[in-house]
Amino acid sequence: MKNLKKQDPQIYRAIKGELKRQQEGMEMIASENYVSEAVLEAMGTILTNKYSEGYPGKRYYGGQKYIDVIESLAIERAKKLFGADHANVQPLSGAPANMIAYSAVLKPGDKVLGMDLSHGGHLTHGHPVTLSAKVYNFVRYKTGKDGKIDYKELEKMALKEKPQLILAGFSAYTRQLDYKKFSAIAKKVGAITMIDIAHIAGLVAGKAIPNPVPYFDIVTTTTHKTLRGPRGGLILCKKKYAEAIDKAAFPGFQGGPHEHQVAAKAVCFGEALKPAFQKYATQVIKNAKVLETELKKHGFKIMFGGTENHMVLVNVFGSKGVSGKEAEAALDKIGITINKNMIPDDPRSPMDPSGVRIGVPAITTRGIKEKEVVKIAKWINQAIENYKDEKTLKAIHKEVIVLCKKFSVYKNLKY
Ligand SMILES: *Cc1c(COP(=O)(O)O)cnc(C)c1O
Predict the structure, then answer these.
(1) Pocket of ligand 1 (CB under 6 A)
(2) Model pTM?
(3) Could you tell me the domains of the chain?
(4) Who is most buried in 192, 347, 362, 369, counting CB within 10 A?
(5) Ligand 1 atom closest to Cα of residue 231
């Protein structure tokens, strides 16, 4: 980065600082990961200069010889990776991918049945503060006492509300979804099915959990969470919806695609097609399970009856009398980054909820396995129990840094 260093030292220094932060911190935000250096290289290229509105073979501007190669490869790899009929690799991120998908198959005012935010759903699934909720009419289903989605209630709601779309998917839910049940309920009421696999795409691609693609009409995802690609979105769908999805992405919602990101997505899909990625995805699930078991031993209440994916939702307030905000701050001080999170029907406020969400995708990329997760769970407990004791927190932080240096990331990246 010698040009950047010389020309813009302020930005250069901040990037360098962020690299160090990522190297020396234990990243346990469930939606984050470390991309490969190959993905980084593809992103930082002259592809950013190109306008390529349209799709391979049918563009609005000239000069698409290489761009078409790149986008076609991204599409073919995405289809192969997920076993999909059709892939649109242009959505700029997860939130726009969802708006594109909604607008492809719904009219303003149409009804969508989606998962309640405090039960693990995502903002873009119709939370009142979002554009989606202003355009469409969302009704929300919840999880039952056993931590699973209450499918009986879901069916009752579907029969009563007659939604045009039934939406599955989440960002803070930890159990495996019953894809067949969603599909069967939708069939009964003539609804289109959509699943947002933003969080679990990497686990699906790595064959560590079942693939929802055969069961849903439309599948949206981000590419930067468990899938370990560049920030971006992806839409997969059945042939029947292919034209509607493509038109809704462009010209319906977006302008020119970001082909440097598309190239990096192609690299990410290529990586995910390799056997090593299946090993990674399997290890993610193993690590999350150990985290759950160990935190339980330390007296933490784990929501939804445990985890079957890459994260746990912990009721820290109900377990230790420490709020989600306080727990997040304590863990920050020991170099473990997580986020405070609502638990189902949380009696506390969104800015200071009862829970924290802890994920293992990023630490698993570092090479961390079960043995180290046991240690990390111990540190998490010590930090939360001693959240006011700066001396203890400082001592744990030192140990965290040692482990981070042992399981290093971007060792060869010289900024
Ligand atoms: C992260 C996430 C999104 C939003 O993705 P962005 O890239 O942040 O826009 C959408 N849906 C779900 C389920 C998510 O977890």
Answers:
(1) 31, 93-95, 98, 122, 124, 169-171, 196, 198-199, 222
(2) 0.97
(3) 40-272 (3.40.640.10), 276-406 (3.90.1150.10)
(4) 362
(5) 7
